[in-house]
Amino acid sequence: MKGDSMTKPCPICDTEIDESKIMYTGDNTDFYPCPTCENFDIYRPYLEELPKEIKKYRGLKEKIQKAIKEHPTGGNRYFIDRTVVKKLLFEI
Ligand SMILES: [Zn+2]
Q1: Which residues contact 28 (CB under 8 A, 6 or more apart)?
Q2: Whose CB among 23, 27, 53, 76 lies 3.0–4.6 Å from 31's, allowing a Cys bridge?
Q3: Structural domain boundaries of the chain?
Q4: Res 75: pLDDT
Q5: From the CA of 70, how far away is ligand 1's center (Å)?
Q6: Which parts of 1-92 are beta strand (E)?
Q7: Which residues have CB atoms below 5 A from the ion given as ligand 1?
Q8: What is the pLDDT of residues 43-77, one digit of tens each?
Q9: 82/75 Cα distance (integer angstroms)
Q10: Verdict on whether the full-model pTM lies above 0.85
C-alpha cells in the first residue's frame, strides 16, 4: 500500500514516481528521479510531447535511457527537450 502519496508517470518509461521527489528546478525545467531511467531534467513544455514521440519512434526510449546513463555525473544532469530528442532520433 502506498497510502496517500501521489505519483506521476515517468515521461520516458511510465514508471510511477513519487510526486514529492519530482522537483521544479527553475527555467521551466523539472527534475525527475526515475528508478529505471535514473536522474534527468526535462523541459516542462515538452513533458506531454515526449511520451507521444516515444510511442511513435521505435527505439527512442532505449536511446534516451542510454544517453542518460552515459551522461557524466558530477556536472549538470542530462537535460531533455525537443532539440535533444530530435538529435537522438537522427542517430537511430
Ligand atoms: Zn523512467
Answers
A1: 43, 44, 45
A2: 23
A3: 7-90
A4: 84
A5: 15
A6: 7-9, 16-18, 23-26, 29-34, 38-43, 79-80
A7: 10, 12-13, 15, 34, 36-37
A8: 999 999 999 999 999 999 999 999 999 999 888 89
A9: 21
A10: yes
